Amino acid sequence: MSGEALKQEIRKGAEEKAALTLTEARSKAEQIMADAEVQAKRLLETRLEAAHRRLEQVERSEAAKARMECTRRVLVLQSRYVDQAFAEAESMLRGIPASDQAGYGNTLRRFIAEAVEALGSSTLVALVRAPDKKLVETVLRSLGGDSGASSPPPKVSISGEPLESMGGIVLLTPDERSYFVNTFESRLLRAREELRAKVTETLLGRE
Q1: Alpha-carbon torsion angle 130, 135, 137, 142, nearest 10
Q2: CATH code for the domain of 125
Q3: Are residues 62 and 89 located together in one domain of the fold?
Q4: Shared-domain flag, residues 90 and 108
Q5: How far is CA 95 from the centre of its chain?
Q6: Is there a single domain that holds both residue 157 and residue 183?
Q7: Is the same domain home to 70 and 111?
Q8: Which end of the chain is more exposed for a tag (fewer CB within 10 A), N or C?
Q9: Domain-terminating residue out of 97, 130, 158
């Protein structure tokens, strides 16, 4: 083989090798680009999912804050209206003992019967308002088997210590270990707490 032919053969082999190398390089570059696109797509999807989760968390948090604020405002209004209603009720109750003796006597009778039944003692002491002493004595004399207590009815004496109250009575055992407060104030307080609890349960959706 002549020198010229050898040069051509070497040149041909180099060109073929270069072409093969270029083909392989292009194939690798295409694969790298394809892998990069897949990775970029995955990264984008991951970031979009994370952003969506954060957005949902923010929305839930804001919704929860809005619900809490709404509930707080309603509770404030509820408390205000309850206070107003019970203030009016207290004002009305203050006038009952003096303005409606018959009705007040029936109320005392019921209050005493409830306290007697709750205490279940044969001997009791009653704390009454000074203006109510004679009325309570009359009520006590009238109590019998229909008082709600066991027969014979308990012996109830009136304490010399006056009761500071709008109305009602306090009964206690002689040793003062057990007592039952049945005054206008105590009943208003119980009614207020029961009403407030019911309204709160309704607002907060509790069973």
Answers
A1: -160
A2: 3.30.2320.30
A3: yes
A4: no
A5: 36
A6: yes
A7: no
A8: C
A9: 97
Is residue 142 within 8 A of residue 82, CB to CB? The reply is no
Nearest to 195 by CA among 103, 66, 79, 23: 79
Q: How long a stretch of residues is the chain?
A: 207
Instruction: Express each pLDDT in 44-70 by its tens digit.
Output: 788 878 877 887 887 787 777 877 777
- Express each pLDDT in 13-39 by its tens digit: 767 776 777 677 777 767 777 777 777
Asked whether the beta carbons of 142 and 108 are under 8 A apart, the reply is no
Mark which of 80, 97, 114 sits at the end of a domain: 97
pTM: 0.57
Question: Residue 158 is which amino acid?
Answer: I
What is the C-alpha to C-alpha distance for residues 114 and 149, in angstroms, rounded to an integer?
A: 8
Token output for 125: 């002491």
Number of domains making up the chain: 2
Q: What is the distance between the terminal CA atoms of the chain, rounded to a whole angstrom?
A: 105
Q: Among residues 98, 149, 90, 95, which one has the least CA distance to residue 120?
A: 149
Q: Which residues pair with 155 in a beta bridge?
A: 123
Full domain range(s) for residue 144: 100-194
Strands (E), 30-158: 123-127, 155-158
pLDDT tens per residue across span 107-139 = 999 999 999 889 988 899 999 999 999 999 998
Domain match, 137 and 176 both: yes
Residues 97 and 132 sit within 8 Å (Cβ to Cβ): yes
